[in-house]
Amino acid sequence: MRSKNKYNNNIRIVGVLYLLISTPMYFFAPLYFLKITNSYYMTSLIIATAMMSKLISEVPTGMISDKFLGRKGTAIAAALFNATGLVCYLLGSVHVAFLFIGRIFVGTALAFDSGNNQPLLFDSVKMSPTKNDFHYYLTRFTSYKYAYLGVAMLISGILAHYGQLEFVIYLCMIQLFIKIGFALFLVEPNEHFKTQKKRKNRVFIKEALKSFMGRPKLTCLCMMSIIRRGVFVAPEKFTSMFYKLYFSYFQIGILIGVSQIFCSYFARINNKIAHKFGLEKSLLYTQIYSIPIHLFAFGFPSPASPILIEAANVSTAIEQTSGSSLLQMEYDEKYRSTMDSIKEILCETFYSVFAISIGILADKTSLETALLTITVVRIFVIPLYLKIITAKRFKE
What we know:
By secondary structure, the protein is mostly helical. The chain has 19 helices and no strands. Helix 14 runs antiparallel to helix 18 and helix 14 runs antiparallel to helix 19.
C-alpha cells in the first residue's frame, strides 16, 4: 500500500500544476485572432470552435480520467494537446484554417483539464493525512495561479509590444512542457480508477446522470455555472479587444498583470471570507460588486474603462474558488470527473452561443454595445444565486 506521505507530495505537485494551468494566451489569443482575421465575427467563431471541441470531448475525457488514464495521465494528455494547438496558432498566419484546427486541439485540452484538475486535487487531499480541507488548498493554489499569471502577463505584454504576439505563444509552450515534467512525478490518487475500467461506458454514464438526481443544491450550482459561462466568461474573451481600443499591448500586460496579482490576494484570503459569510453568500456578493462597475465601464466607455473592469474582476477569484468548492462537495466521488464533464457540456453550449452572438452584435453595432448588452443580462442571474443559499446539501 502506498505511503500517505506520497499523497502529501502529490498535493505539492498539484500546486505547481495549478500554477501552470492558465497561460497568457487566455488573454492574448483573441487579440492574435483579431489581428489575423480583422473581424469580430470571425474571431468569435474561432473562439467558439474551442468550446464546441470541448463540448464534444467533455464526457469522453471525463470518463478517460475516471476509468482509463486516471488523473495523472489525463493531466499529461491535456498539456500535449494544448501545445499542439499552440503550434497550429503559429501556422495561422499562413492560413486561417490552422487557427480553427488549433482551437480544436486547445478545446480538447480544456476538456481534459476541466474534469480532471479539481478531482485530482480533491482525491489527493482525501488520500493524504493532511488536516486541511479541499477548499483550503484550492484557494491557496488558485492564489499561486493568479500570482504567476500576473507576472506572466507583464512579461507577455513586453514581448508583444516590443516584439510580436508570436513570442507570447513561445512562452506558453515552454510553460506547458514544464507542466508535463512535473505531472510525470504524480502518484495516481483516484482509488476507483482501476475498478471502473471493467464497467460498460453506457452504464457508467447512466449512473453518473442518476447521481445528479436528489441533489437540489448541485442542480442550482450547475445552472449557475452554465449561465455564468455564457454571460460572464464569454464576454471576458472580448474584453482584451476592448482594452486594445485604448491601450497598447504593453499597457494591457501591465493592467491585467496587476489585476491578476490582486486576484491572487483575494483568492488567498477567500478562506477567511468563506468562514465569515459562507461559500454561498460569497458567490452572491461578488456578483453584486462587479455588475454595476461593468455597466458603467461599458455604458460610458473611456480610457478609464479597462481599469474599472479589472478592478471589478478581482472578485472573480472568490467566485471561482467558492463555486468550485461547493460543486466538489456535492459530486459523487465515483463519478466526480464524469459529472463535472456532463455539467461542462451545457456550459460550453451556452458559452459558444453567447460568444458568437457577441461577435455578430459587435460587427453590426460596436464592441462596447455588445459587451454592455451582455452585462445587463447578468442582472437577471442574481435570483439563482439567492436560490443556492437556501438549497439544501445532499447527504449520502
